[in-house]
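User: Here's a chain of 372 residues. Predict its fold as tokens.
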Amino acid sequence: MKTQKLISLLIAILFTLGAFGQEKTEGYEFKDLTNIKVTSVKNQQKTGTCWSYSTTSFIEAELLRKNNQEFDLSEMYFARLAYEEKAQDFVRYHGKINFGEGGQAHDVMNQIKKYGFITQEAYQGNEYNPGHYRHAEMSKILKAVLDVIITKPNKKLTSVWFDAYKAILDTYMGEVPKDFNLNGEIITPKKFAQKEGFNTNDYIELTSFTHHPFYKEVILEVPDNWSNDPYFNVPLEEFMEIMSYSLNEGYTFVWDGDVGFNGFSHKKGVAIVPVGDFEFTEPKEEKEIDEKYRQQEFDNLTTTDDHLMHITALAKDQNGTMYYKTKNSWSDDSNELGGYLYMSESYMRLNTIAIMVHKDAIPKKIRDKLGL
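Assistant: Prediction complete.
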């Protein structure tokens, strides 16, 4: 009798483990293959700050991985600082570079390197309507001011133009505090990052395009790379290998890519590249994506970088097709999967523009080729 009870208990445990990580949406059934702890889904609302939300989520996951410490960091802190840097560059380039709400993962890292990071509680990033984010008016005003500045109405720039610009940011987003209260300790944002042992040099960005040499740092030609930061360029197969290796080794990564593609449906919780029609009723055969086709779609501007998200797990559907579980920043009630979606391997091969990973999340043989 005891043996039978033990067997029954083991069966129950195995059933529970098998059911862990099961997700359903429409005719899809997903089973998570990896389980990396991450923080809750946030909402960027009416702002073009996906780059900050995705990378901040990634950093929060890294702090969990490294120190088992969970923090809710301020995404708008990085956006506020980036607006300042964008303005300086816009003026220095006489208005000949991109200015807007968009950005890349490295924009967050660049600000951390200079200033550190801060909690959401300490910097809400919205002075006039706390908890609600909408940057359209502010962004247009900032751009209008810069457009006037570069015309040099006084024949040369005044010494206060940047102070006037920052005053607009302070009015809309709030002044950036020099220090804040962290669990009873008054600390600066930079000291906070140092205390957590967060080293921005541990993180790199990678891309995969044939118009650049492989295993070299290249400038990725997308409008939101306004700072012209470099990316390591690797072959597509190694690009995909890095993504899978990262998740299997317990590292998440930031994803930069195209969600304007017809096969992307956040509402349905899936992103696919089917051989036939774009339907989300059940898993279908997907296209095989090679380097040539990927490059073609990038060169004809079909594949663009219009969104960044946080990749948190590997998964499979009921047919065995591989997917990447993706944490979006459109709120936890934006779909039936709590704000997550599953992007197929074909979708990743075609529509991934770039990723950011911890350097240790890259297989050693590829790190050696990159000189890391």
